[in-house]
Amino acid sequence: MRGKAKAMPAPAVMAETPPRRPLAGLAAMLRHGRYVISENPVTGFAFGLFVLIVIAALFGPYLVPHDPLASDTAAALKPPSLKHWFGTDQLGRDVFSRVVVATRLDFFIAIASVALVFLMGGLAGVAAGFFGGWTDRIVGRIADTIMAFPLFVLAMGIVAALGNTVQNIVIATAIVNFPLYARVARAEANVRREAGFVQAARLSGNSEVRILLAHILPNILPIMIVQMSLTMGYAILNAAGLSFIGLGVRPPTAEWGIMVAEGSAFMVSGEWWIAFFPGAALMIAVFCFNLLGDGLRDIFDPQRRT
Amino acid sequence: MWSMTLKRLMFAIPSLIGVVIITFLLTRALPGDPAAYFAGPAATQEAISQVRAKLGLDKSLLVQFTRYVGDLARGDLGNSLTTGQPVVTEIRNRLPASAELTLLGLIVSVLIAVPLGILAATKPDSLIDHACRLVTTAGVSLPVFFTGLILVYVFYYLLGWAPAPLGRLDIFFSTPPQITGFYLIDSLLTGKFDLFRAALSQLLLPALTLAIFSLAPIARMTRASMLAVLASDFVRTARASGLTPFTVIVTYAFRNAMLPVITTLGMVFSFLLGANVLVEKVFAWPGIGSYAVEALLASDFAPVQGFVLTMAVLYVALNLIIDILYGLIDPRVRIEA
Predict the structure, then answer these.
(1) What is the ipTM of this complex?
(2) Cis bond before residue A61 (omega within 30° of 0)
C-alpha cells in the first residue's frame, strides 16, 4: 500500500507513536458521520434528497416521460393530471419533464460557481492568512470592496458588463461569494501560521509556497468544504434570481428560474402549476443544501455546532 | 459623539472609493468596443469615433477615470440609450417607489421577527421556539420571487383580497402631489384617505414578500442574542431582586440583546436591496430595480451602471447609519472612540 511506504521514513522521534493506518482517519470520519446521521435524522433526510437531486442531474434527460422541448399547442395550459404530472405550460410542454431536466443546468451552475470561488477565494484567503503583510492587505481590500455592494446588485452589474451568458452567471456568482471564502480561509490559515507542524516543515527545508500548498491547505480543506455546502444554496438562489430577471439562460432552455419567470404571468389567471413546480424544486434544492451544510459542519467541525 | 460620527464617516470613504472604481471598471469590461456600444447599433463609423472622443475613450485609463469621477461629482450618470433621458432624473423619480417598498418591508419584518425571537428565547423548546426555528430555516430557502408569486396567487386569485400586482396605484386613482415621494405619507399629508388605502393595498403584498425574506436572519439573531443575555449575571441579579419578568426581559435583557441584531441589519439590507429587484419584477413595481432590469435586457448599460452605483452608495450610507445608531445605543462604543 502506498500509505505504508510513505510512513516508513518517519523521523526517529516519531517512532514511539504507533504508525497510523492510512485509512483510520477516513474510517473514523465515516463512523462519526454515521453517528451524526443517526443522531440527527434531518441530515439523513437531506442526504437522501441530495442523492435524488444528483440522480436527476445525471440521468434526468433519460428518465422523463416527455420531451422537455416538444410543444403541443392542443394540450397547452392543462392542469396536473395522470398524463402530465405537473401539468403543461403555455406551449403544451410537460412541466414535470422540464423541471427534472432543468436540475442538471441548475446543479451545474451552482457547482461550477462554488468550485470557482473555492479556488479563487480559498487560495487568496490562505495566502493572505499565511503570508500576511501586503498580500493580506490586498485580499482584504478586494473583499471589503465587494462587500460594499448589495451582492445581488453587483452580480447583475457583472453579468451586464461581461455579457449575458450562462458562463458569466457562474463568474458573477463566484465573485460575489469571494469575500465569504477568502475570510474563512484567511482566518483558518492565520491560526496555523506558526503551528508546530508548520515550523517542523519549515525547519525541514520546505519552501514557504510548498508549506502553504502541502501542509496548510489540506488542513483547512474540511472547513472549506463545509463552507462550500453552506453557500451552495445561496449560489443556486443567486443564479436562479439572475435568470428570473432574464439574464443568462434563454428560452426555451429548461431552467428553474426562467421557468418561474415564464409561469409568473399565468399566476394571476389561475394557472399556478407552471411557476409553482419549478419554484418548489428550487426551494427544495436550496433547503436540502442548507440542511446538508449544517450536517456536514457537525461531521467535520463539531466545535462550531450551535 | 461628534468625533465618533466623524470617524465612522472616514471609514465609509474607502468603501465609496472602491465602489466608484468597480463601477468604472465594469464599463471598461464591456465586451467589444464601448464607443460602438454607446453609439448604438445604427451608428456610422464617423459617429462612433465622435462618441469615442466625446467619452474620452481615446485617452488613457487614468484620464478616463478622472473624467468619470468628475461627471459623478456633477451628478451626471450619462443618458439612457433607449429613452435618451438622463439616468439621474430617472433614478431620482423612481427611487421613492423602491425606498417606500423596502422600508415598509423591513418595518414589517422587524415587527414580526423581533417579538418572535424574544418569545422563542424566553421559552426554549416551546411551540413558539419551534415555530421560530421553522421560520428561520424555511425563510432562507425560499426564493423571494417564488414567495411573491405564491402570495399573488393566494391573495389575488383565490381570495380576491389584494389588488392586481400591477404597480403602485390602481389606474383609477391619480397620484398624490409629490412631497416626499412616498405615496403613503403624501396621501396622509394631503388628507386623501381613500388614496392612502389604495396605495397601502398595492404595497402590502410586495412588502410582505420582502418581510418574509428578511425575517429569518433577524429572528435567528434576536433569539441567539437574547439567549446569551438571559443567561448573564446581571439578568440573574435583576430576577433575584424581584423585578417583574416584563421589566427584566424588556428593559434589562432586550436593550443589551439589540446590539448584535442591529449589526445583522447591515447584512439584511444587502439582501433586501437585491431582493427588491426581484420583487419589483414580480409586482411590476415602478422602482429603480425594474428600471435596471429593463435596461439590462435592452443592453442599455448607463442605467445599469447608475443603478449599481446608487444601490452601493445607499448601502454604504445605510451601514454608516447602522454604525452611528450602534454608538447611540451602546455607550461603550462611544468611550472607545
Answers:
(1) 0.85
(2) no
